[in-house]
Amino acid sequence: MRRSRSPFGRRSVPVASPALALLAALALALPAAAQTVYKALGDSITAGSFDDPDRAEPGYPPRLEDLLEDRGVPAIVENHGFPGESTAEALSRLDSVLAGGGDVLLLMEGTNDVRDVSIETIMHNLDAIADRAENRGFEVVHATTIPRRNTAGFDATNIVTGQLAGLIRETAHAEGRSLADPFEVFLHHTDDPFTTLYVGNGDHLHPNAAGYDVIAEVFADVLTGIDSVRPVTGHVSPHDDQQGTPANSEIQIDLYDFGAGLRIDATRLLINEQPVTATITGDERRQQIRYQPPQPFVGVVFVGLEAEDRAAPPHRREGQLLQFVVQGTRFLPGDISRDGRVDGSDLVSMALAFGSRRGETRFLAIADLDDNDQIDGNDLAILANNFGQRSF
């Protein structure tokens, strides 16, 4: 299989973790028979559920093996995915996965925990898996989980899954481990990912063949030192869509780059689209951004972030990072944008979703003003009744 240009972003200068760079160098220096053994631990998304049925070996691991071979890294990538698995179950079977030795553990777990288990518990299990693997002589590559489709019955907006991704990044940095970030690549480096990279047809979690291709390339780039991901966030407070936020809350953002490093003078914080003077500390791997408002926040607060890495050409992130609602804020029915007024932008949002039902891609829950699981004339009438009015 020939290597092709990444489908999700520009390629940049190679930057790998020291340990993985050493493994790659040794693989090239040793005789052709020497191969790096990667063990991919995960759930159904590692196992390859719903992949192209014509493929003899489903999932991202066989694709990754081909990519590594094409890039000059002799490799064996074993698929240890187990459909339906939780992080606790992964921890319980880890010893059998590690048996026989190997070099690198690729760890992508947590999708099946998100609904029922706290993200702190998920991270405790993931860190325990990584620690045990390291104690057995493995390098560990953490990986974020892929986003849930916007038709999912739980966490369709990926707020919880995004928080988990942030904690996985925090842990990878703190423990000096490498990071593969399919969550970021799917959600922010791919056009229309929920249409192009997922099975669909009632399934809200699993990638299609194109999605598995992308996951494999995300891992391949990390393992061969190619920087193809923009700066990413770890801890963020308040969290996105947080309701009832105290008016004097400090904004806290941890910013990371696992590739070429952050351009530390390029980071800016914006509040309601206006730049503000924030306290920014740290280095090219991690910056801590802190902002205490001089006056209490009111209404809905939109937080934007601009950042850039040192790759050539650089990867830049800009735009809205999150929004939160200040305690005591009241919204008029029909204020779909949550900006304090019912106006043309809300009407456009409703028009785009008009006629849809819950479970359909176009359905917008916040536009279902009468909570009857469909967006129809009743919702339009409620919006029209408040059109032109303000709540704050």
Describe the structure.
This protein is α/β, with parallel strands linked by helices and 392 residues long. It has 3 domains: 206 residues, Rossmann fold; 67 residues, no CATH class; 63 residues, Type 1 dockerin domain (Orthogonal Bundle). The strands form 4 sheets. Strands 9, 11, 12, 15, 16 and 17 form a 6-stranded mixed sheet that branches. A 5-stranded parallel sheet has the order 2-1-3-4-5, sandwiched between helices. A 4-stranded antiparallel sheet has the order 8-10-14-13. The chain has 11 helices and 17 strands. Helix 4 runs parallel beside helix 5. Helix content is 30%, strand content 22%.
Number of helices: 11
Do you know the CATH topology of the largest domain?
A: Rossmann fold
Large-scale geometry = globular
Average residue-wise pLDDT: 92
Pick out the low-confidence regions. 1-15
How would you sum up the major sheet?
6 strands, mixed
Broad CATH class of the largest domain: Alpha Beta
How far is the first residue's CA from the last residue's CA? 58 Å
Can you say what the CATH homologous superfamily of the largest domain is?
SGNH hydrolase
| Rg, Cα atoms, Å | 22 Å
Along the chain, the helix and strand elements come as HEHHEHEHEHEHHEEHEEEEEEEEEEHH
Number of domains: 3
Alpha-beta classification: alpha/beta
Relative strand content: 15-25%
